[in-house]
């Protein structure tokens, strides 16, 4: 049992200086989070109050076919709304009336703010309160912002989950709450591992249905599965829940440390922990070793995009043998990301926020073997001879916990293997 991890007490990057920059940024819109959230909440509908551009973004991101009926849509703000010539609240009421009359399966309705609705100061919180009184108890109406004006794309999920916490019922039950939207198969793996250790009850936010037994109180402890949930973290603590700070479950080491912190909280002994985790840990190590052959000794540069950057840098440097040159994140919340910083060896530049031109200059000067960035930067950097990985792919792909550890390493090694094959083709 000596190899069971405990967090290091010194030697990491937690206290290292952070380069903070504010300038032009390259990020996706927070509305993107609807694409994975609407798949998790089976009786919810996401109504974006926005423009035709918002509608086109969601349609393109989801790949919705013409005969499908998704659980999201856009209430289009027309020129008369934007010019203040129509009462946008009245128009919104009409749209919601029509929607709920046609879709009687909806139990949760999210009014989602966008750049256009925020520019005209449309008060969606007031609309949600008014509609809740009208449609309760059959439909719960909440609101959050998915605007990309001041946020990065994963903050859409954070805003959504944070909006749900204040209306959760109160409970005095001792329970574990897992917070963050995961693919169903990954969520099932996590809950299974915890249940095998005797930990329970285990509940998940977001729950698949509004009538689930999800609740929160002072006896609730919660573990985040995603590092971008700062607002949700704050809302849960306001309700009296207590956060289990842990590295995020990326790779074998991160997953084991995440599980270990929860196991310690619930008094699980080392023998039980070893029995439950030994086999999947071994599989994860083997898969990572095979997938990371082309990563060892290579350098990586992270542009700020998804807020997954610091846990991923920890995974790549400690488990895949890479060297991190710069690790940029939109926001660095040490109360959430601190355990990963403790495990990330000193050396890389840590940057928060972005001045994209200055960061591009640093990247070009460093010439990393792999650059992790958004879609808007990837093609130009590829044209300059730099290998890139799309940051958004790391959010849409199952990458958490043991069984996905090899796939996670493979996402990073694939661009380098592709470049090697292309070079062979050129030489041939």
UniProtKB/TrEMBL annotation:
Its EC number is 1.3.7.7. One of its GO terms (molecular function) is oxidoreductase activity, acting on the CH-CH group of donors, iron-sulfur protein as acceptor. Keywords: 4Fe-4S, ATP-binding, Bacteriochlorophyll biosynthesis, Chlorophyll biosynthesis, Iron, Iron-sulfur, Metal-binding, Nucleotide-binding, Oxidoreductase, Photosynthesis, Plasmid. Pfam families: Oxidored_nitro. InterPro entries: LIPOR_BchN/ChlN, Nase/OxRdtase_comp1, Protochl_reductN. Its cofactor is [4Fe-4S] cluster. Residues 29-384 form the Nitrogenase/oxidoreductase component domain. It comes from the Bacteria. [4Fe-4S] cluster binds at residues 29, 54, 115. Protochlorophyllide reductase is composed of three subunits; BchL, BchN and BchB. Forms a heterotetramer of two BchB and two BchN subunits. Component of the dark-operative protochlorophyllide reductase (DPOR) that uses Mg-ATP and reduced ferredoxin to reduce ring D of protochlorophyllide (Pchlide) to form chlorophyllide a (Chlide). This reaction is light-independent. The NB-protein (BchN-BchB) is the catalytic component of the complex. Belongs to the BchN/ChlN family. This is Light-independent protochlorophyllide reductase subunit N. It comes from Roseobacter ponti.
């Amino acid at each position: 049992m000596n190899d069971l991890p405990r967090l290091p007490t010194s030697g990491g990057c937690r206290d290292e200086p952070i380069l903070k920059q504010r300038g032009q940024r390259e990020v996706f819109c927070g509305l993107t989070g609807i694409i994975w959230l609407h798949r998790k909440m089976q009786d919810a509908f996401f109504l974006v109050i926005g423009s035709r551009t918002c509608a086109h973004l969601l349609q393109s991101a989801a790949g919705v076919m013409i005969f499908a009926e998704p659980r999201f849509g856009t209430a289009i703000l027309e020129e008369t709304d934007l010019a203040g010539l129509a009462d946008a609240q009245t128009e919104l009421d009409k749209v919601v009336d029509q929607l709920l009359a046609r879709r009687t399966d909806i139990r949760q309705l999210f009014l989602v703010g966008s750049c256009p609705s925020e520019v005209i100061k449309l008060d969606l919180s007031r609309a949600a309160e008014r509609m809740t009184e009208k449609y309760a108890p059959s439909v719960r109406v909440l609101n959050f912002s998915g605007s990309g004006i001041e946020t990065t794309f994963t903050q859409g999920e954070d805003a959504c989950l944070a909006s749900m916490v204040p209306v959760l019922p109160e409970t005095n039950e001792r329970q574990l709450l897992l917070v963050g939207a995961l693919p169903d198969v990954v969520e099932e793996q996590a809950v299974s591992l915890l249940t095998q250790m005797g930990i329970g009850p285990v509940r998940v936010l977001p729950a698949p249905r509004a009538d689930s037994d999800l609740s929160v109180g002072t006896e609730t402890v919660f573990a985040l599965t995603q590092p971008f949930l700062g607002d949700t973290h704050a809302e849960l603590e306001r309700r009296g829940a207590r956060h289990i700070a842990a590295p995020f479950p990326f790779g074998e080491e991160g997953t084991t440390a995440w599980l270990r912190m929860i196991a310690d909280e619930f008094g699980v002994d080392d023998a039980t922990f070893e029995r439950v985790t030994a086999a999947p840990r071994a599989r994860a190590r083997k898969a990572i070793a095979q997938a990371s052959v082309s990563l060892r000794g290579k350098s990586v540069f992270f542009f700020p995009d998804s807020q997954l950057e610091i846990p991923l840098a920890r995974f790549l440097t400690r488990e895949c043998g890479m060297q991190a040159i710069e690790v940029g994140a939109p926001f660095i919340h040490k109360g959430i990301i601190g355990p990963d910083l403790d495990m990330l060896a000193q050396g890389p530049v840590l940057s928060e926020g972005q001045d994209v031109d200055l960061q591009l200059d640093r990247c070009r000067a460093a010439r990393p073997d792999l650059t992790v960035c958004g879609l808007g930067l990837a093609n130009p950097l590829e044209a300059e001879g730099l290998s890139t990985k799309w940051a958004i792919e790391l959010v849409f792909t199952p990458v958490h916990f043991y069984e996905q550890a090899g796939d996670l390493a493979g996402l990073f090694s694939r661009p380098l293997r592709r470049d090697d094959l292309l070079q062979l083709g050129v030489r041939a």
